[in-house]
Amino acid sequence: MEVKICGIKTIDEAVSISKEKPDYIGIVLFFPKSKRNISINEAKELFPFIDPSIKKVAVTVSPDLDQIRQIEEAGFDILQIHGEFDTCLFSKIKLPVIKAFNEGNLESLDLYIDIESVYAFLFDAACPGSGKTFDYNSLPDLSSLSKKIMLSGGLNPSNVSLAIKSVHPDIVDVSSGVENADGNGKDLKKVHDFIANARATIV
Q1: pLDDT score at 47
Q2: Which residues make Cβ contacts (< 8 Å) with residue 97, sequence separation at least 6?
Q3: Annotated catalytic residue 124
């Protein structure tokens, strides 16, 4: 089971979370509404402190092509897109893409199934970043999809195993579920427990 720890902001987090060896680390960009948002220059300052074996994911909402070029030039490995993005523009992206869907827009999934640059489909709660789970029965049949399946939305060390057994994703993604009690910064024990519990789950 692959694991993504999302929303890191500081060098200390980059160093400490790298030691836990997640498969992906997510950094929120160009979305000032999020408390986890940082600038592209701040993101680049974190890169030397992230283990090279961990893929760096730029997490965006309806990005424009200029923002995507900045992400590509910065050295990210994967682009994650929430919100709207014209399917015709995927051919202009040089990075593998994680296309995110919320509980309320699953009907648009068919538009992206045959896009070669889409690396994975991410399924999230209706309000991303809220820390709330959603009804997994609302998901379409995922067994026929040729992309990797990533599950997010309200996951934490206590419920990740059940979520994996329910959905059978390839990747689990967490942000708020491993944050400190005040919502600022990551709780390293929670990060450790989340990764351990996810990887120990047998489906």
Answers
A1: 98
A2: 78, 79, 80, 81, 90, 115, 117, 118, 119
A3: yes
Residues 6+ apart with CB under 8 A from 69: none
What region, left, alpha or beta, does residue 121 occupy, with left being phi > 0 and alpha being psi -120 to 50 degrees?
beta
Alpha-helical (H) ranges within the chain are 11-18, 40-46, 65-74, 160-167, 188-200
pTM above 0.90, yes or no: yes
Tell me the per-residue pLDDT of 91-147, one tens digit each, with 9 for 90 and over.
999 999 999 999 878 888 999 999 999 999 999 987 766 667 888 988 988 888 899
Rounded Cα distance, 24 and 80, in Å: 12
> Looking at 6, 114, 127, 135, which residue is catalytic?
6
Catalytic residue, candidates 86, 114, 124, 170: 124
Alpha carbon distances (Å) from 77 to 27, 45, 91, 133: 11, 15, 17, 27
